[in-house]
Structure formats: structure tokens, C-alpha cells
User: What shape does this take?
Amino acid sequence: MSSMDIHSLIAAWALNACSPAEAGLVEAHLPTCPDCAREARRLVEVVARLSGADLRPPAGSLARTRSAARRRRPPATATAAYAASYAAQVAALDLLLTDLTAADWRRIAAYGELSVHDLVAHLAATDGLIAGVLGLPVEPLGDDPATRTAAVLDRERRRNPEQTRRSWRAQADAMCRSAPANPPLGVATTALGPPLCLPDALTARAYETWIHREDITVATGRRPLPPPLPGHVRLMAELAVRFLPQVVSRTAGHVRLELTGEGGGTWSVPLGPSLAGVSRPAAVVTLDVVEFCRLAGDRRDPDGVAAEVGGDTGLAREFLAAVPALAVVP
Amino acid sequence: MGMSVLRQQRSTEAARDDARLRDELAYGDEAAFTDLHERFAPLVYTIAARITRDGRAAEDVTQEVFLAIWQRPLDYEPERGSLRGWLAMMAHRRAVDLVRREEAHRRRALDGALYAGAVSRGDPVGDQVSDSDAAERLGAALKALPAHLSRAITMAYLEGRTYREVAAELGVPEGTAKSRMREGLRRLGLTLRDQR
Assistant: This one.
């Protein structure tokens, strides 16, 4: 069908008055043709106003719809504010996982050897380290991500993917429900590598859950879900930035890191033991906050990432190259 | 500057709000779902009621529209248009599908001489969506149109006819049915824009 023919169908399409096959043609055409897309947008808006909006659904309709929604897709579990980014990442990964086929679960998704099924077991294993901190019973035991992952993989490989998904989600939900409203001060765990307080540990879990969700999205060829919400990506970026001085070390000076986009911000990253007396940054690095988080999660090539550098560009490039070495996100 | 710039700004902000709401749904935010329902349930329900003329069916259609975006938030693509327009289209599509299925069912039932049982519809929505009311409501928007244009749109929108059925029923070529829908919507768009 020619593009002219498709154009003549747009009004009928907006009125749901063409065949399903024709509707499919129109919908496939729209992203490729700005003129038709503009016409479609305009006509859809006109059709949307034909009925008005003056009737109200019967009383109780929202409550009934909400409980049906919970049954079809469990929402992010209510939790303390500092754990909300983790609860959100769990809900988004679960949305992706519930859509996968048996063949998808077998695809290799990360580290060249872990299937999607293995990766979910790995997430559950590492989450378990924090579940233990929250006082939840955790089986099998293990004090670091590698040991626990080995033990959990051994168990989960004998289960089917649906059982693994359910036990991962059940543990995550229990963690959200157990997170105290006021988190304890001080170091809660060293199991993820660096010493972390409880809010940081949960942000680190949110971060890894997101990064692996993107791994699974790519491995299974699904449409990508949006990157973390601005408030959540900011927490992740902040966490990553705090560990940057440990990966690039100089005697003095600092790099100004300007992370753009919603949830971004500007940070001075010290390269040596002291910032005293140094007001001008030795280098300036500017990049998108979500891309920065992917870089720090070792999912972007430092040479390929779209970043602007200023000042001592050699230092800036060295700084960018060192970012993926961050240990906080395994 | 003037109205067009202001309108442009407003639509950019509205587009950002729509995208944000969609993203919150993707992240399983139940408060966002409640917000979505509160903002758009009257629109979705009104469309479903106009088309199905059946309270129970309209409530079912409304619920399915909201459950669908909760389960498949990526189906709504903010870069393609407003959330309002998309939800309205989904509501209309589901309502029309229901009416067409019922129509097919009724025809089968008539063939089998089972007329009496099969034609009874569920609870009527009551006088708030009687045929005359719906016609009047649409009529207000369609009044300015020449009869041949408003007829094509009414048959498609309210009665759930495809453009092929409209063409056959009116005895005009299919291309004419399509272009009447297009011209009718184009003119309605101008009228509605002036009313804004």
C-alpha cells in the first residue's frame, strides 16, 4: 500500500473504522512519516472530544479497578522513602520478566555466561545479603555476592524460571516491608564491597536491578522500559559519585562533574586527600546523568560515551576511563 | 508571541506530564494509577457509555482500558500524542469491538431464530445516555457540518461501522467514505479549536 493510500486511511483509523490489518499498516507508517504523524495526532484529539467527559463511572469503580490491577500486576511495594527506588526497580523488572517466554529465560544476558534465569537468581542472591541485614531469614547462606550467587544458582537451576521469579520478588517485597522508617545510622553492611549504610545499600540494589534489567531487555529484544525516575537516578548518580575518588587518585585537585538531564546535578570530585585552597577544577566533564550511571555500571565504553570535556582534557579522559571500575555496582 | 507560543509551551509541558505519568506506571506506582484513573475515568467511561449504551458494559470497558495501560504501559508512546487522546481511542476501540461482537452475535442468533433471548442487552445506563441524549450531544459538535459529512462520522463513531460498511450503506465508493470522515474531522477540529 502506498504512502498516499495510508494517508487517506488516517481519519478512518482515528475513528477505529478500518480493518485490523489496515490499522496495523497505519500504526507502522506513523513513526516514519512526520506529516501523517501530525495529522494522526490532530485527528485523534478531535475524536477524543466527540463524546465529552460528563458521565461518572459508578461509585466504587476506582476501588474495584485498583484491586483488579493488583491481581494482574502487583504494584511497587509500599516502603520507607529511602527504599522506594529499590521497590520501583523491582516492580519494573518484574513487569519485564512476566512477559518473557521459556526461550527468553535461557538467553545469555550478562557476563558472557549468565542466562536471564541465572541473572535473576544472582539478583536474588545479592539482595539476600541485604535481606539478612534487615533481619529476614536467608537461605542458603554466604557472606559475599559471589559465594551466595554460587549457592543460589545451584538451587535455582533446579527450579523453573517462574519459581525463581516468584522467590526473587517475594524476598524483594519482604525487604521493602521490613525497611524501618528511620534507618539505623552508620554502616549496615560491607557485604557489597565498600561499607554502606542501609539507604545506600538499597540504592545499590536498585542500581544493580536496573542495570541487569537493561541487560535482559537487550538479550531478549524487548522494548526498553524508561530509565529510572529522576529522583531515583539522582540517588544512584550520587552513590556512584561518592566512590569516584577511589578510582582516580591524584595528590590534589578536583574534577567538576556536570550530569545533565532530569535528576542530574553538579559535583566536585576530589582527586586527592584535600580540596583545600583549590577552587578551580582541573577538568570539567559533562554528560547525561543516565549515561553516566550506565558508564559507572560498566555498561558503556568510556571512549564511546557522549561526554564533553574541558580544562585538562587528558585528565578528563583518564577520569572517564576509570569510572567503569566502580565497585559499588557489581 | 501571542496565543500560539503559549499554546506550544502548554503542550510541551503537558507532553512531559504525560510521559512522566506513563513512566511512573511502568515503575508500578499505584498512586500514579489512582491519579490516572481520577483524571481520565470520566472521559473513558463517557465514551464507553455513548457507544455501548449499557452501564455494565461501559464499566467493563473502562476497567479494561485502565488495566491495559497498567499491564502494558509501553503501549502508550508519549511522542505520538497525548495520553488523553490515546486513552479516548482505546476506550472507543474496545467499546466498538464490543458492539460489533454483539451485532455479530445477534445476527447469528437471528439466523438461528433465537432472537428473543439474545437481543436483550445488559443494564441500560439510564436516561443519562439515552440515544437522544447521545445524539444531541454529538449533534452539538456535528451540527455545523453538512449532513453527508456528519452522517459518515456518526455511523463510524457512534454505531461502530467501518468505512467499508459506511460506503456500502450509503452507496458511495470506499474512497468517498474515507474522505468524508477526513473532511468531517478536519472541520470539527476547526470548530473545536475556535471553542477552546
